[in-house]
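Hey,

Quick one before I head out. I ran the complex with NDP overnight. Inputs first:
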Amino acid sequence: MLDIDLRLLLPSSQSVYVLVFYFVYLAVAGEILPGKVIRGVVLSDGSQLRYRCNGLLALTLLVAILGISAKLGVLSLLVVADRGLELLSATFIFCVLVTLVLYITGRYSSDKSSSLKPHVSGNLVHDWWFGIQLNPQFMSIDLKFFFVRAGMMGWLLINLSILAKCFQDGSLSRSMILYQIFCALYILDYFVHEEYMTSTWDIIAERLGFMLVFGDLLWIPFTFSIQACNCPGWWLLYNKVELSVPAIVDNCFVFLIGYMVFRGANKQKHIFKKNPKTLIWGKPPVVVGGKLLASGYWGIARHCNYLGDLMLALSFSLPCGISSPVPYFYPIYLLILLIWRERRDEERCAEKYKEVWTEYLRLVPYRILPYVY
Ligand code: NDP
């Protein structure tokens, strides 16, 4: 399983072209395609960034271009599945280079705005890892929004390429179909609700350093697809799983409940922030200190959205059966990440909301899973 030919990690010129084409396409599409323009949160200096949420259109157009090009024989849909490791290492090199540039430009920036003000601890590794500026831009493109979009789309493109390989090999299984459907729905849903991303922790609180760039560009697309891919220990292409009908039904159930909680919780918070009087589950919202929502999902646990996301992650892995822990990499990683993130978020909220937060803790005692955690 871990018998990797390290030469496969050396990026060929073709994998570099694929990456360059991908980033150039996303930059151009993001700028010229129409989309709802959303104002971001108000930053500490009173400024607000604007985000053009045209990811769904950009993705649809890209898939159409790739499909037509493959039909015309201009490119092979298998390029990603066949060159997974090369693309991974090329992306890694790109992440290192781009974050070094971000470090240098951030370090020597004299901009005083909240978005571009340098936060320098003096520790090179720390500053490179966590980033120096909140919202660095390149040719007016907000890089944080750009990279997360690239990562989420990349995940779908990897999956589609693996699907094409399954068709070619005649190895399409029920497990692969289930995995593909769940992930495609999750990713499409992400782009349908792309504007919700503008109020998430990554966008509003995290600076842009290696941690975020690597997480967006490499971690999301390459490790979230472990269940399906053709790489060391990557799974469904090379492992046969016979799923029974009850197992499929149970799996769909986990996906649907997870989706309902994940999307419902994120949506409730988003609409509450826009208009604190909006009804929640048909009733006027319970509001703490005029600022925090304490009803709906946000009255059940303080991060029900994380619970929903964890159920979704589990549903992406269940199609692989339980014979190996490898396909469960994503839910296990997400569990660790979200527990850590929830703690950091609570610290930030306690500092920001003070006694209002204490009152919220009293009203809603559970962090993620009611009665358990
Ligand atoms: P949240 O969307 O939960 O945002 C947290 C912020 O929401 C807080 O800092 C606070 O910000 C505000 N807030 C918290 N409680 C309340 C409340 N009761 N009422 C009103 N506002 C509140 O966190 P994330 O940005 O971390 O996550 C967003 C989604 O992204 C989640 O569903 C998560 O699962 C998913 N995610 C997925 C990852 C993956 O790898 N798959 C990684 C990370 C996140 P403010 O100061 O603005 O009030």
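DSSP finds 14 helices and six strands in the chain.

Talk tomorrow,
K.
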